[in-house]
Amino acid sequence: FFFKQKTAYEISTRDWSSDVCSSDLSAVSSNIGHVASISNLSVNADQVAGELTNLLSRAAAPASVDAGSMTKDQLTAVSGQIGNVGSITHLSVNADQVADELTNLLGKAAPAAASVDAMGMDQGQLTAVSGRIAKVASIAHLSVSKDQSAEELGNLLGAASGASVNATMMTDADKLSAVAANADHVSAGGITNLAV
Q1: Pairing relationship of beta strands 85-89 and 92-93 according to DSSP bridges
Q2: Would you give the distance in Å from CA 106 to the centre of its chain?
Q3: Which of 4, 40, 59, 105 falls between 20 and 30 A from 175, CA-CA?
Q4: Per-residue pLDDT tens for 76-112?
């Protein structure tokens, strides 16, 4: 790729003779100041976080993102340009993403397609996952407590396998009902401190 000074190019990846390779997109990213827009953009883990930010910032139409094997920094870059993202495939998220990033990323995933590793997630992160539960296929390493609402408990436990529930001070009947309705998603002996 050759870029002239002070010229803004419009690039369509569809016009390129074969699949756009990582080095092609790296060259475009390196010269992003000369690019007005990019059509038909598809990005993946081959682009580093800075390249993802650059490329997605110039997407003329919603871009496609294959998030398989993306790092925390790459997912943060995608989340930062979420307005230019049309869809995300192969999405796997964990406690490395803050709540707003989880909301953004899961919002662009296909229904029942994303996987979530909830180990170490705080209340805000679990609330974000619950709010996008229709996009979640599975939740691993889930641990919930009285801090979640009854709706969140039902959402999260319904998508989990082998979850644990700390029932300390969980006295709300709706919360207990949500746990009971999803008991088959809780590991054996996974409900602790239950007082009935």
Answers
A1: unpaired
A2: 4
A3: 105
A4: 999 999 999 999 999 999 999 999 999 999 999 999 9
Question: pTM to 2 decimals?
Answer: 0.88
Beta-carbon count within 10 A of 191 CB = 17
Digit-coded pLDDT (tens) for 122-166? 999 999 999 999 999 999 999 999 999 999 999 999 999 999 999
Give me 85's structure tokens.
Answer: 């993202």
Q: Is 70 exposed, middle or buried (0-12, 13-18, 19+ CB in 10 A)?
A: buried
190: region left, alpha or beta (phi > 0 left; psi from -120 to 50 alpha): alpha
Are 149 and 164 in contact by the 8 Å Cβ rule? The answer is no
What phi, psi does 139 have (nearest 5°)? -125, 125
- Is the per-residue pLDDT at 68 higher than 60? yes
| Number of Cβ within a 10 Å radius of residue 45 | 17
d(CA 91, CA 64): 12
Which H or E run contains 37? Answer: strand 35-39
